[in-house]
Automatic annotation (TrEMBL):
InterPro entries: Flavin_Rdtase-like_dom, Split_barrel_FMN-bd. The lineage of its organism: Bacteria, Pseudomonadati, Pseudomonadota, Alphaproteobacteria, Rhodobacterales. GO terms for molecular function: FMN binding; oxidoreductase activity, acting on the CH-NH group of donors, NAD or NADP as acceptor. Residues 18-173 form the Flavin reductase like domain. It comes from the Bacteria. This is NADH-FMN oxidoreductase RutF, flavin reductase (DIM6/NTAB) family.
Length: 201
């Protein structure tokens, strides 16, 4: 099968995000200038550079009470900071609860019963029990083609790692089993790994 996105795919559901899988989930915490905390998952997320360490996530829809975007992007525009919280399998239900299109005055930490802690390098809350948290300062917001599509880039200014996830000096993903997004309503979880040496190593 071949299709041009501009012509449609003719399938019951859009296959695009089922093709680009698995995708890590950026559980983004942010705080508005009014002090209101927000927590929401984004599956268009990844690391993009080592030095300095940088990440990005993309928001692809809008809410009526935020105009052209969603709470996360609106807050980051106001304050210039955000935190990426890594999602483990054990927190899948809490993460999913925070994915709703809640009103801007809803605190998803409270809604989903998630313990929070204050970040060290930025004025923002983080998921206290997460395997890792990446504190970020905004570097740029890029407007993408399409309605409400924006990519948010940030430089990592602080890194938290849960002590039980460090094994022999390495961050061990099998200690917590990262959750990843597939297509449609599907997710997957990392439960095994293997190593490959690059040519010449």
């Amino acid at each position: 099968m071949f299709y041009r996105p501009e012509d449609g795919h003719g399938l019951p559901h859009n296959p695009f995000n089922a093709i680009v899988t698995p995708r890590p989930i950026g559980w983004i915490s942010s705080r508005g200038k009014d002090g209101q905390d927000n927590l929401a998952p984004y599956s268009f997320f990844n690391a993009v550079a080592y030095v300095p360490p940088q990440v990005m996530f993309a928001s692809t829809s809008a809410k009526a009470d935020r105009g052209d975007t969603k709470d996360s992007v609106a807050n980051i525009r106001e304050t210039g900071v955000f935190c990426v919280n890594i999602v483990e399998y054990a927190m899948r239900d809490a993460m999913n609860q925070t994915s709703g299109a809640w009103d801007r005055d809803v605190d998803e930490f409270t809604l989903a019963g998630i313990d929070r802690a204050e970040c060290d390098t930025i004025a923002c809350s983080r998921v206290a029990g997460a395997p890792a948290n990446l504190e970020c300062k905004l570097t740029q917001i890029v407007t993408l083609p399409g309605e409400a599509n924006v990519a948010v880039f940030g430089e990592v200014t602080g890194v938290h790692m849960r002590d039980d996830c460090l094994k022999d000096g390495m961050f061990d993903v099998l200690a917590f089993n990262p959750l990843a997004r597939l297509g449609y309503r599907d997710y997957t979880v990392v439960r095994d790994t293997f190593a490959l040496n690059r040519p010449g190593e």
